[in-house]
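hiii so um. not sure if this is the right channel but i have a protein structure encoded as tokens and i wanna go backwards to a sequence. like what aa goes where. can anyone help
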């Protein structure tokens, strides 16, 4: 499970854009997004790096939480 803090995710549109970006990396990934907390939780076998990149490419700033 990877936990990203995405502080520039501000509305439902951001949520669906990020969801799509995550699914683009791994269609089987489980994504849980908490908009008020600006948190994106991802369960996947793919490396966290790949998701960090996808979030950046989607135009957001994702910080992987330890
Ligand atoms: Cu938005």
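sure thing!! here u go:
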């Amino acid at each position: 499970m990877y936990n990203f803090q995405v502080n520039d995710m501000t509305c439902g549109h951001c949520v669906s854009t990020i969801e799509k970006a995550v699914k683009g990396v791994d269609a089987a990934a489980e994504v849980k997004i908490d908009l008020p907390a600006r948190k994106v939780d991802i369960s996947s076998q793919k490396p966290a790096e790949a998701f960090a990149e996808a979030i950046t490419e989607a135009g957001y700033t994702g910080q992987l939480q330890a």
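oh and The chain has a mean pLDDT of 98.
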